[in-house]
Give the backbone structure.
Amino acid sequence: MTDYNIGAKIKKLRLAKKMTLQAVARETGFSPALISQIENNNVSPPIATLSKIAKFFDVKIGLFFNEDEEECRYEVVRRGERKVIPRVISRAGTSQGYSYESLSFRKQNKKMEPFLLTVTEKTTEENTYSHDGEEFLFIMKGEAELLLDDERVTLGEGDCVYFDSSMKHRLLSRDGSEVQVLAVVTR
C-alpha cells in the first residue's frame, strides 16, 4: 500500500480541512487509532472504509489509487500494473481474509470502481459493511458466501449478484478455499 500513498493522500485531505484525527474519526465512525494507522500506511482499509472516507472528503475513491493528475479519456491497465492492497483489516484491527487490486486508477471522475478481490481464508469474524452506492460481484473462481443484511447467499463460479451497497454485506470463502471476484462499486 505504501507504493500508492493512500495514507498520505488521506492525511493531505485531512490537513487541508484543518481537521484532527479525532474529528475525522468522529465524522466517519472510525477510531482515531485506525485513521492514524491508515494515514501511516500501517494497515490497508477495506473498500467500504475507503468509500466512507472518500465520501466524507467529497472525493472519488479512485483518487487514492491515482498516480498522476492528468485526465485520460480511457485507460489500459496491464496485469503487472494493478494496484494491490494487501492486509485488509477491520475496524477492530483483525484480518478480513482478503486483499484487493484496483483495476482502474488513472481515469479520474469515473462513475464506477472496478476491483479484483481475492478471499484467501475463511474467517471466524462475520462483521459486515455498508456504504453508499451499488455493487456488482462476479465470482471468477471458487465458492463464496455473501452475507446480505440477514440473508446468506451461496455463489459459485460464474454466478453474479448486484445489490445496493447500503445493505450490510460481506463476502466470505464458503469453505476456506481461495475465491476470486470481479467487483464493481459505484458511489
Remarks:
- The beta strands are 83-85, 98-102, 112-119, 134-141, 144-148, 151-155, 160-164, 169-173, 179-186.
- DSSP finds four helices and nine strands in the chain.
- The two ends are 22 Å apart (CA to CA).
- The helical segments are 6-16, 21-28, 32-39, 47-57.
